[in-house]
Amino acid sequence: MRLILVGPPGAGKGTQAARLVEKYGIPQLSTGDMLRAAVAARTPIGLKAKEVMDAGGLVSDEIVVGIIRDRIGEDDAKTGFILDGFPRTIAQAEALEQMLQAGDQKIDAVIELRVDQSRLVDRIVKRAEEAKNAGQPVRKDDDPEVFKQRLEAYNRDTAVVVPYYEKTGLLSVIDGMQSIDDVAASIDSVLQGLDEKV
Ligand code: AMP
I need a labelling partner for 144 at 20 to 30 A (CA). Which of 34, 105, 120, 196 fits? Predict the structure, then answer.
């Protein structure tokens, strides 16, 4: 199964992707995680991406498409994957389609976690507090000011990905303001519907 999770930062994509990894045994491909790893390892890509990420902007399509191209070619992604945070632009969505087509593969479902954006800043402040209390590193871009830039980038560049997938008939919209368990149950019923179609 090849699945895309779409939604603004803080919508819960990472939380839901982690659960789906357990349930389906397919990897979560988070471009944000991969870029943070590249920044931490000070690779050439990390060095290029760091400033943009710290400011809440989008890393270039060329870089992220390259990262995803390499990643979906790895063995553990052969039978499926959950994309979290990619594609974030129409150009990325088109590049993804081309790379999948070349391998005779396709996306099975796109799930949008739709949220009330006015409540996201509170969520992100909470996420940073929880990480801090658990002794985990706090993401630099979870600062409320940077978060607003990330939300702006979403509305400016990424929100258009939703109608793009709506046209293909792959999109399902889920209320991301429900509890984590209820969001999970809603995703499960979408995926169950897919099984029945096959
Ligand atoms: P995330 O963990 O998905 O919130 O991503 C953290 C940051 O990584 C974003 O604010 C962007 O700067 C960068 N990033 C992650 N995925 C992408 C992408 N698909 N396209 C461009 N930039 C990305």
Answer: 34
